[in-house]
Amino acid sequence: DADVTQTPRNRITKTGKRIMLECSQTKGHDRMYWYRQDPGLGLRLIYYSFDVKDINKGEISDGYSVSRQAQAKFSLSLESAIPNQTALYFCATSDFRAGGGADTQYFGPGTRLTVL
Amino acid sequence: AQSVTQPDIHITVSEGASLELRCNYSYGATPYLFWYVQSPGQGLQLLLKYFSGDTLVQGIKGFEAEFKRSQSSFNLRKPSVHWSDAAEYFCASGGSNYKLTFGKGTLLTVNP
To answer: How far apart are CA B21 and CA B65, in angstroms?
Structure first.
């Protein structure tokens, strides 16, 4: 979805380096998410944010941190990258769904990260 | 805890043939169900979603899915597959909160 952009699209780094992946959206959504995708494992949630002041850990947050700089920007950092963090990383956004229930999430194009 | 199972890791069909991708969910109440498609090198695109109402849901690109509570299933169908449908397909479910649980995906190959 062109409304959700991720930079960089590809990155190769070395073990121990600090890496930041950035996500921007023009959809005006309050909620943003970071997922990682590994072959055969589907998507797993790393962190999510319901607004600028509300950030929460997902199921696999160890080794990652995030920053919600504005409604439209949500960054994911790997403080000290390790090889098993090699994966495809997706940012997603959603709008709060009145009445409760799961939101429809819209995904960016992904960042392919390789940690050597 | 919620779970989503896509029993078929890889499916191969011929162009023009019909397609059914299976998805089973585990959730106590009525779930919110989604199908996404991921083309090579691309992000996930929403094909269709089910929240309530008519159990047969129409989506983009000629896809449809049917919610069957008795079978805990939300299978994706297309009557005639095109070569451009080759991609990986993900089923996801959500409950009473924001969280989506994804299946592990089904890779679709289309033979000419």
So the answer is: 9
A85 touches chain B (CB under 8 A): no
Q: How far apart are CA B5 and CA B11, in angstroms?
A: 15
Substitution target from B98, B99, B102, B106 for chain A, most A beta carbons within 10 A = B98
Using omega within 30 degrees of 0 as the cis cutoff, is the peptide bond preceding A8 cis? yes
Reported as a single tens digit per residue, the pLDDT across A6-61 is: 999 999 999 999 999 999 999 888 899 999 999 888 899 999 998 899 999 998 99
Residue of B51, B99, B104 lying closest to A41 (CB–CB): B104
Q: Strand pairing partners for A45?
A: A35
A4 interfaces chain B, CB cutoff of 8 Å = yes
Strand B106-111 relative to strand B10-14, pairing: parallel
Nearest Cα residue to A60 out of A40, A89, A39: A89
